[in-house]
Amino acid sequence: MAESKSIEVLMREYFDNPGSRRPGVGKLEDYALKMAKIQGRVPPSAGKKGIYVFMGDHGIAEEDVSASPPDAARTLALQILRGDAGLNAVAAGAAWEITVVDAGISGGLPEGVEQNAPSRLFRTNSAPGRNFVKGPALTDGELEAALGRGEELAKDAAGRGYYLTAVGESGAGSGVSAAAMLIAAGFVPGDMINRDADIDDARFSRVQRLITEAVAARNCDFLDGEEILKNFGSASLAMTAGFLLGLEDRGIACVLDGFSISAAAWAAFLINPRIGKYLFAGHRSRETGHQIMLDHLALEPVIDLALRSGEGVGAAIGGGIIELACLASGGTKIL
Fold this sequence. Notes:
Strands 1, 2, 3, 4, 5, 6, 7 and 8 form an eight-stranded parallel β-sheet that branches. This protein has helices spanning 7-16, 27-39, 72-82, 86-93, 140-159, 174-184, 189-192, 201-218, 225-232, 235-246, 259-271, 288-296, 313-328; strands spanning 46-55, 96-102, 120-123, 162-170, 253-256, 279-283, 301-303, 333-334. It is globular. The chain has two domains: 1-44, no CATH class; 47-325, Nicotinate-nucleotide-dimethylbenzimidazole phosphoribosyltransferase (CobT), large domain (Rossmann fold, 3-Layer(aba) Sandwich), CATH 3.40.50.10210. It is of the alpha/beta class. Helix 12 links the parallel strand 6 and strand 7 (301-303). The relative contact order is 0.19.
């Protein structure tokens, strides 16, 4: 394997060779170059891809802060396991393997639901995050366990031979928890608190007040990713952060999905800034705060389809384009 410090030079020389396949100057070439750096291989190879959907509910949902039904994560998880969610169609079109991670779904999932399912189910026996208005969302032990489970899933990705992964999420109150995390990290509340289309003025004002008062009362260190996750996150967001941290030095890239995932990524970045070297932004969602977070993570979205679905659809589509960049640059597909 070539030294990573010389990969860019080697890749440029490869592109300049008249006999090499070149995807054309532009974004595809940029993606191929980054993939080469991640893999330490010229040209970068393609192969198996896995998307992990971290699903878990957030205690803040009990404050009636979201227009989504309280069982939305459970409903979506069952849809994915049946194979009839939108993500299933997108994943099938781009050959992604799906893993549903039960990271605190209220009520859990029925025993045996994963049998004969088109997607995998990873059970963690985690509880939903607590209501951060009343106290920290996670205990120290729960945070440590969630980060550890995320790292375990990173090992799973390596063991399954994935060269490219993606992360999505779903859970009641996840957007509110993500906003609180990012405000605690020093971002402007007006940029981070997103308004659901079905929320009236009175409820939105209440959401703003609950978040800002809770953040002010907790007074977290805005550079401490673990403290932010403990106070305002959840098992699902902490597991996502652990997964991203666990991919370091594995030669595996990861494509991020939407706003809530970007909050988990920012917490992981505060813990280890090196994670940006192997991350891509699959898309830019409709939430105002998402582009701001991508800017701070120094990531440019692969696509912009005004998505707001959250469960990984944008990451799966964007990741498919990254794979095409590897193939267009002459990389082989390893199955």
